[in-house]
Amino acid sequence: MSSAPEPPTFKQEPPKEKDFRNPGLRGVRTTTLFRAINPELFIKPNKPVMAFGLISLSLCVAYIGYLHATQENKKELCEAIDSEGHSYMRRKSSKWD
Q1: I need a labelling partner for 92 at 20 to 30 A (CA). Which of 12, 34, 37, 61 fits?
Q2: pTM across the whole model
Q3: Contact between 41 and 24 (Cβ < 8 Å)
Q4: DSSP states of 19-86 as a string?
């Protein structure tokens, strides 16, 4: 049996420091249009701005929910006047009920 020649051994070089400096798509060559349309892929996240935006958005949603809840409560009550002329608050009822 003949022995096959051994393949040359390749030395694996450790990853270079510059490879870790640009994670994600920041190191990829792209067009200016792609960068303008997708800036979130190339900009480093800013934690304070992200926290401010999250709190602001949460407060806006909570305020809209509060307005919706108070509007629902106002819809069910109406001022009614009895036969003697006294006004009182009562629940709205449909003419079809």
Answers
A1: 61
A2: 0.44
A3: yes
A4: HHHS-GGGGS---HHHHHH-GGGTSPP-HHHHHHHHHHHHHHHHHHHHHHHHHHHHHHEEEEE-TTS-
Question: Using CA atoms, how far apart are residues 69 and 78, in angstroms rounded to an integer?
Answer: 17
CB proximity list for 87: less than 8 A, separation 6 or greater: 79, 80, 81
For residue 11, give both structure tokens.
């030395």
Cα distance from N-terminal residue to C-terminal residue, the chain: 100
Show Cβ contacts of residue 19 under 8 Å, excluding neighbours closer than 6 positions: 27
Predicted pLDDT at 56 = 98
Q: What is the pLDDT of residues 4-51, one digit of tens each?
A: 666 666 666 655 555 555 556 666 788 889 888 988 887 888 899 999
